[in-house]
């Protein structure tokens, strides 16, 4: 019998693709601007109910509005036991460059671009990019399945005429 020797595997380090990160943030910005009209200071909150029995809601609140930035607090609520914490994202919209980025998630903030894994906080190796992808998926979900309240529908209808 011939014994085949395997080469030792070299662990490759993760590198961040800046174009991918920027394109995700740009797409998120345009999704936010279309889902939350008036987020530059004209309106303070939006609510989307998701699901046939409306068991889940996504509530969006405008925390601060400045000439070049806006900060949104996106909270997902659902019918769940009291001990499960609802996910909460704080998103900064940069109007001058057309980008939206997650700046806080529940009580976590200030992420590095890359982490060694495992790490003390058990962050993903690409935690920052993963959170922006999650925001993207949440916005797509709100767009596909969410039902906006009448005030949003009226403002969209009025702005298009």
Quick rundown:
By secondary structure, the protein is α+β, with helices and mostly antiparallel strands.
Mean pLDDT: 79
Q: What's the total helix number?
A: 3
Helix content: 25-40%
Q: What ranges have pLDDT less than 50 throughout 5 or more consecutive residues?
A: 149-161
Number of domains: 1
Give me the secondary-structure category: alpha+beta
Q: What is the strand content?
A: 25-35%
Commentary on this structure:
Helix 1 (18-35) packs parallel to helix 2. A seven-stranded antiparallel sheet has the order 6-5-4-3-2-1-7. It is 30% helix and 27% strand. The chain has 161 residues and is of the alpha+beta class. The protein has one domain (18-160). A hairpin with a 3-residue loop joins strand 2 and strand 3 (69-78). The protein is built from three helices and seven strands; from the N terminus they run H-E-E-E-E-E-E-H-E-H.
């Amino acid at each position: 019998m011939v014994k085949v020797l395997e080469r030792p595997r070299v662990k490759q380090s993760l590198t961040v693709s800046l174009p991918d990160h920027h394109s995700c943030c740009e797409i998120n910005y345009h999704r936010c601007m279309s889902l939350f009209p008036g987020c530059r200071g004209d309106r303070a909150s939006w609510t989307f109910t998701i699901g046939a029995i409306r068991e889940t809601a996504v509530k969006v609140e405008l925390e601060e509005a400045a000439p070049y930035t806006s900060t949104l607090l996106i909270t997902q609520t659902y019918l769940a036991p009291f001990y499960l914490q609802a996910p909460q994202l704080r998103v900064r919209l940069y109007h001058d460059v057309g980008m939206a980025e997650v700046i806080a998630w529940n009580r976590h903030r200030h992420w590095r671009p890359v982490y060694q894994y495992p790490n003390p906080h058990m962050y993903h190796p690409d935690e920052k990019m993963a959170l922006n992808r999650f925001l993207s998926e949440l916005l797509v979900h709100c767009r596909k399945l969410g039902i906006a309240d009448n005030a949003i529908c009226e403002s969209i209808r009025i702005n298009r005429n």
